[in-house]
């Protein structure tokens, strides 16, 4: 019995030694991206036209609006080490490197990146939408993402353009709750570098981390805010929503006649030159 | 995947048994010669990268008529693109599975090899990119390419047809897209009375047709130009607007306000067989359509300049309309319809 106690003590001692040693540091760990969708910091509650629960926002132009549906695609994720090295995360594989954030599905608000090399990271880059070279609704290559995006309650396929919807927002605006419907997606045709027609709605986002994300024995969580106040009141445009019959006004909130889709896209995804954050910011990094 | 494994296994067997002079099963497949008809423009350059072959075209035609492409096995390409209607149909808007109604009028499929833009809004520039659209669209076939491939594999007879058409590659998504495009490249209509008159093959216009041709050259040819009878431009000509909020015309692709409710100028070939007319079948007959153009069209900021300069109308007397319709019927290619 005494022997056993000593033995147990030895085991405990050796365990504590092991856990103290540098050899125990994993070569990689997870990084969790946590998305919080807000109107100027207030987490969005979705609701239909009669909802009293829904978070109501007011645009710079004085239009009240709220959302019933809110989805967007995040892909092309890259973490940047403090030394500047970029660690791409399955950027050419939509099945393992892209996700649909859906405000109505809590589980989609967190996206776990696995096997991120142990190191310190000071910046994150990702795409809002799908890079044009992958944006072909290629079910053969990426059956999982195709299925997730195309599910009946998700509807992120843009069939006629054989691409993905990048953002899908349904909601209501003005006090009489007129329908608001914003879908973004690319209509590019041709090869990269020599596009022959269409518009690219993909936006590359770059965010500096306020504190370094330390990947190692812990897997940090990077908390990202997407502030949808930017949709109408962004860095690029202050948009007034108008009805579909008036397409010459600032913006048309209908699904596919949104001739001014790019204004909304620039607001939430940045203009790729002076604004590379769009509606996104880092709330905090939890190490 | 299963097929790939099977092929690998097959290759291994072949290699294993053979001497040095090992021969992989090769499929003999010859190219189909498509002549450019008299006066027609050059091919779309993609024709040269997806050259129609005997087996490719054969497979494409079979797939074009294959209802397994739709979720409930009821709709094929040919359901809306019927040969007797110059590969268009008689519905105002396309009708898919379970009677679901689409956004637009099914366009005819003819002389595709010479076109540079496909669909009413020119959303596709290569024919090979098009077949997936109806396959996955809710209002059309509402299926998916993997679902289609699985059904074709289960059907049994397709494996060999794909192998013959695409050098033993088995049933693939690209094989589906490419073979259907190859078949469509062969659908060329250039044997109407008009063509025979132009080629001086012994036919002559009647007096009325000749008078109609004069009207055509005076009032239609600036848009319906070339031997394709379209200049392939996008124009808003003030036709009644599709009330569907999905519709934006060419602007849906370009996102240019100037393209709002602009549509690709359709070919006039075989127009006798393709009623109703307009992007969502606004007009039941050619007479209705010409009456509308004569009476005056809807105004718009981006209304075509030709109409703007003419008080938003194309004035036509009743006789001119009758003559014009007589001429348009000379564009009917019975050989193409019956083939």
Provide an overview of this structure:
Chain B: It is found in: Periplasm. Chain B: It comes from Formosa algae. Chain B: Residues 55-156, 207-332 form the Cytochrome c domain. Chain B: InterPro entries: Cyt_c-like_dom, Cyt_c-like_dom_sf, Cytochrome_c_Peroxidase/MauG, Di-haem_cyt_c_peroxidsae, MauG/Cytc_peroxidase. The complex is a heterodimer of chains A (287) and B (339). Chain A is built from 4 helices and 17 strands. Chain A has 287 residues and is mostly beta strands. Chain A has one domain. In chain A, strand 13 (189-191) and strand 14 form a beta hairpin. With 339 residues, chain B is an all-alpha fold. Chain B folds into 2 domains: 2-185, Cytochrome Bc1 Complex, Chain D, domain 2; 193-338, Cytochrome c-like domain (Cytochrome Bc1 Complex, Chain D, domain 2, Orthogonal Bundle). In chain B, 36% of the residues lie in helices and 1% in strands. Chain B has 14 helices and 2 strands, in the order H-H-H-H-H-H-H-H-H-E-H-E-H-H-H-H. Chain B has helices at residues 2-17, 54-64, 77-80, 132-136, 145-155, 158-165, 173-185, 193-198, 207-219, 251-254, 286-295, 305-308, 318-329, 334-338, and strands at residues 234-235, 263-264. A two-stranded antiparallel sheet of chain B has the order 1-2. Chain B is globular. In chain B, 45% of the residues are buried. Mean pLDDT of chain B is 92; it is low at 1-22. At the A-B interface, helix 3 of A face helix 4, helix 5 and helix 10 of B.
Task: Describe this protein with a few key phrases.
A: 287 residues; mainly beta; eight-stranded antiparallel β-sheet; five-stranded mixed β-sheet; 4 helices; 17 strands; globular; B: 339 residues; mainly alpha; Cytochrome Bc1 Complex, Chain D, domain 2; two-stranded antiparallel sheet; 2 strands; disordered N terminus; Copper-binding protein MbnP-like domain-containing protein (chain A); MbnP-like_dom (chain A); signal (chain A); MauG/Cytc_peroxidase (chain B); Cytochrome c peroxidase (chain B)
